[in-house]
Structure to design on (624 residues):
């Protein structure tokens, strides 16, 4: 379970977060939807404990990210905004490295790596060095390293950007599977269709604040619009920075 | 020690070993340094040992055949077609024989451009040969008059060289040791850059920092990985030196060079703290850079300082107790005493190493703080 409460963060001249509060429940896919520059990435970074908020707090499984960042990071898997791979390692070594950083050892580690390789159907590329991987293959490695330690919470930052249809399908199936296992999935996106199709719960954020939240359907009903797209435009009050 | 430390260290080592660029950098300094010195020595030895003929112009050689013979015996010859004379003129006056017979001073001219440095040793040889010949004649004249030649030599200077073979070696071999120190600084450089600025360039830094790893272990592991290469380069250079000098006839220079296994072991141990210090310094610089290239630029600027310090010490032989304690200069001091055959000042060595390690720890702390700062990490 991921929770933020009154998160505030200002950079030099920009107020990135201004009192952001939302919950992402276990067993649900929560979408953080907002136009570019709404503060999505800043919000996620405060949840990892990489950024200290000026006010408010973020918790993961009721543990404060600011106070116990290591404990929080043990409970989350991260699919980052930009995922650079270590190009001289094979996919398997890559996944094993991050599994080891999460404290897995020996046989447990091997099993975990093997399991995730099977799960993401990447046995064919597992022992190749990641240099020269296609975008889809790179995504699989990034996903594998995010879930190899079976975190209770999975955070994805703009996951489907630049992915082809097959990769998007794999990503989606993985998210459904994790939801069935009762895990908490939080993903940020500025792509509406994706959020509308995938999410059980949508948090619409603009200018570092929550504008509205609920199921996609509830949001439509609330605005009296038929399509989620219209509802979204109505809610954020502008068409700027949104991708349909 | 934290297991995470070994995990990161192992990964960085694996990564670096697979990176040809890092490996080549580590090897090249260690290999080429001693080789370069060996070649330089070979040339030097040839130059010093074989005294070459000096070819000069002699005007009026027919006036003083005995003098010309004497000069010839000292390999000072008149220029010929095949070996033309250099720009040194010796003028023997026509009155030579007469003046000699009457014991009158004979004006002999040595004409040359005295600001020409390349002819300095030749000029000196001509002049000292003439002086020697003049003295021989003087002694003959005194003997003929029944006076012992000792009368005109009230002082008998006996030059006793206290330079041991070892200390003479130190003068020359100091340069070789500079290469050992430099390979410590340059061998780990690529690994340091790749695991810091490279990580940022690959966009993998943020993800790595979001792992449940205490930042100081991350920094320590990366520094140790770079230091492993730095130490490898330094020790490789150290081991190669005796091997390379097996082929160089150093004894012809009057240099006795021997490095025992224990000496090498001590030096290798002394290099370890320096390797750590060099690596964390490089990490400190290159974590601030946005790309590999930028980091290389910064590092080459920063690396100029220790290299300049080493060279300055090597040329000036400046000594101060403080220098035995500071990083780089402390290690230089140990290397230098080892080749000069001086006994090691154990306390100074330990203090120097401890201070180097202490500064390394401080820098680990500084880099850790840097990586916890969102300003540095995200460049905000």
């Amino acid at each position: 379970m991921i929770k933020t409460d009154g998160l505030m963060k200002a950079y030099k001249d920009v107020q990135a977060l201004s009192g952001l509060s939302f919950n992402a429940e276990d067993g649900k896919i929560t979408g953080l939807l907002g136009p570019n520059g709404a503060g999505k990435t800043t919000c996620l970074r405060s949840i990892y404990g990489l950024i200290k908020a000026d006010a408010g707090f973020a918790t993961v499984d009721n543990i404060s990210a600011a106070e116990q960042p290591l404990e929080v990071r043990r409970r989350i898997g991260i699919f980052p905004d930009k995922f650079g791979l270590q190009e001289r390692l094979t996919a398997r070594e890559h996944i094993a490295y991050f599994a080891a950083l999460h404290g897995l050892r020996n046989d447990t580690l091997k099993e975990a790596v093997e399991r995730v390789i099977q799960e993401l159907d990447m046995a064919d590329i597992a022992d190749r060095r990641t240099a020269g991987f296609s975008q889809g293959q790179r995504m699989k490695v990034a996903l594998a390293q995010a879930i190899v330690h079976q975190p209770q919470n999975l955070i994805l930052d703009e996951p489907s950007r630049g992915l082809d249809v097959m990769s998007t399908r794999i990503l989606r199936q993985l998210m459904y599977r994790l939801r069935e296992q009762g895990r908490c999935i939080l993903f940020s996106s500025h792509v509406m269709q994706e959020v509308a199709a995938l999410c059980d719960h949508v948090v619409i954020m603009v200018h570092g604040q929550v504008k509205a939240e609920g199921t996609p359907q509830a949001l439509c009903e609330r605005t009296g619009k038929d399509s989620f797209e219209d509802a979204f435009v109505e809610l954020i009050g502008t068409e700027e920075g949104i991708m349909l | 020690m934290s297991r995470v430390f070994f995990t990161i260290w192992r990964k960085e080592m694996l990564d670096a070993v697979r990176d040809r660029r890092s490996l080549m950098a580590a090897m090249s300094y260690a290999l080429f340094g001693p080789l370069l010195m060996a070649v330089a020595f070979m040339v030097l030895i040839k130059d010093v040992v074989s005294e070459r003929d000096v070819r000069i112009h002699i005007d009026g050689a027919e006036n003083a055949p005995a003098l010309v013979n004497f000069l010839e015996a000292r390999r000072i010859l008149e220029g010929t077609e095949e070996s033309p004379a250099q720009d040194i003129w010796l003028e023997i006056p026509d009155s030579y024989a007469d003046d000699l017979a009457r014991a009158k001073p004979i004006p002999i001219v040595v004409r040359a451009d005295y600001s020409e440095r390349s002819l300095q040793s030749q000029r000196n040889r001509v002049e000292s040969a003439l002086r020697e010949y003049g003295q021989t004649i003087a002694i003959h004249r005194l003997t003929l008059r029944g006076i012992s030649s000792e009368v005109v030599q009230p002082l008998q200077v006996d030059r006793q060289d206290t330079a041991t073979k070892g200390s003479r070696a130190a003068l020359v071999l100091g340069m070789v040791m500079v290469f050992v120190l430099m390979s410590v600084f340059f061998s780990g450089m690529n690994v340091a850059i790749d695991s810091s600025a490279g990580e940022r360039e690959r966009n993998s830094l943020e993800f790595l920092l979001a792992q449940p790893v205490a930042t100081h272990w991350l920094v320590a592991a990366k520094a140790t990985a770079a230091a492993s290469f730095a130490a490898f380069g330094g020790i490789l250079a150290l081991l190669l030196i005796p091997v390379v000098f097996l082929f160089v006839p150093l004894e012809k220079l009057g240099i006795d060079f021997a490095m025992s296994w224990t000496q090498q072991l001590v030096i290798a141990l002394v290099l370890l703290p320096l390797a750590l210090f060099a690596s964390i310094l490089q990490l400190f610089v290159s974590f601030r850079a946005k790309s590999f290239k930028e980091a290389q630029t910064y590092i080459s600027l920063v690396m100029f300082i220790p290299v300049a310090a080493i060279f300055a010490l090597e040329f000036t032989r400046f000594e101060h107790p403080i220098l035995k304690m500071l990083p780089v200069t402390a290690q230089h001091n140990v290397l230098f005493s080892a080749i000069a055959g001086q006994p090691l000042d154990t306390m100074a060595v330990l203090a120097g190493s401890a201070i180097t390690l202490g500064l390394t720890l401080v820098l680990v702390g500084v880099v850790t703080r840097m990586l916890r700062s969102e300003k540095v990490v995200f460049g905000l």
